[in-house]
Amino acid sequence: CAGRYVYMYDLPPRFNADLVRECRRISGSPNVCKDVATDGFGPPITGGGEGGSLPERGAYDTDQYMLGVIFHARMRHHECLASEPAAAAAVYVPFYTGLDAAMHLDNADLAVRDALSRDLVDWLARRPEWRAMGGRDHFLVSGRGTWDFLRRPDADGWGNALMTYPAIRNATFLTTEASPWHGHDFAVPFPSHFHPSSDADVAGWQDRMRRAQRGLLWCFAGGPRGGDTGTVRAQIIEQCGRSSRCSLLGKSAVTKPGHYAPGHAMRLLESAQFCMQPRGDGYTRKSTFGSMLAGCIPVFFHPVSAYLQYTWHLPRDYRSYSVFIPAGDVGRNASIEEVLSKIPSEKVTRMREQVIRLISDVDPAAKGVTFKDAVDVALERVIHRVAKHRRAAAEGRELVDSVDGGDSWKYDLLQDGQEKIGPHEFDQYLYM
């Protein structure tokens, strides 16, 4: 554990446990009390689930917003927890930011919407652990995207103001969808439906995905949305519907609006070579990691959907594990199938193997697994980031390793030792 110790605050329960107990108050989410069960994994899925394609062990109906709860549960069993903050390489603040935000998203009273976030900031500011580095060694984890925490404190608008407080801006903020234009938030993959409890479970699933018979060239695990004409999603559905080499997730797989039976979805994903990943409600989709779990090569249409999001968890060489088709090309009626058909079979095999190798890296596994999982990867990067600040402080200088603005995302792509940013192939897609 040398250099890997993490100190975890024992926060007052109003910041986490009470939010779970009050799950029925969360706006528009009648199933949240079910979702927070099993340490955030949700209800276990037995027998492979509807469709029969999930693992017999370690499968759960996991909600996309539960990362904060899952991360906290994982940290309670972390092998390198420090009993004293002075011995720690980083400090974890287990505030369930996502549950708090969801509980008040519809509340017009901004003071109420911001109350618990403001309370946390005040609580932290009184702590000697926080004052030691001004919060630069602290990190928080959210099950919701950055966009839910960027409202200016003095202005109306969406979400709460947690990430705009100066104190929090020194900390590292882990989220399921980061903003490419803000400097201290970093994306961690959405939790999938498979949370293995042994190395054998991981290896067995990877071997199964290598053997999977993939009769489809491509697929899309999603459906149309109202007023969705002219979008990439609509184009995908239209093109797929005309192809004998593509399939969509059928209506029989829908268990509630916007939710598909995990087993049915997995059966589709593991039967295709390529899985379409257009933008969801934001830039990202939980299905990205469902498709990777299925050994299906993801196809992205905007760089912020993955390449500029999960820079800690996915290879920098995006061509090694995915296909990029610019949304503008699809809008001009480029044939998705034609693009995919031109990829040599040997390259497809290499890409799929890379995806399968990433399965453990992109999910927060259950305890008992020695494969590096999404939590391990995130902790390594947080500790690395804190260590750079410590070195700078020891040298009498302040490290500026993140900035806000149009080029903020470029700093996340710098390798160790690099300090300057320049033109990038994705510049054309990232006008503010």
UniProtKB/TrEMBL annotation:
GO terms for cellular component: Golgi membrane. One of its GO terms (molecular function) is glycosyltransferase activity. It is a single-pass type II membrane protein. InterPro entries: Exostosin, Exostosin_GT47. Its main location: Golgi. It is found in: Golgi apparatus membrane. Residues 1-339 form the Exostosin GT47 domain. Pfam families: Exostosin_GT47. The keyword Glycosyltransferase applies. Keywords: Glycosyltransferase, Golgi apparatus, Signal-anchor, Transferase, Transmembrane. Belongs to the glycosyltransferase 47 family. This is Exostosin GT47 domain-containing protein. It comes from Triticum aestivum (Wheat).
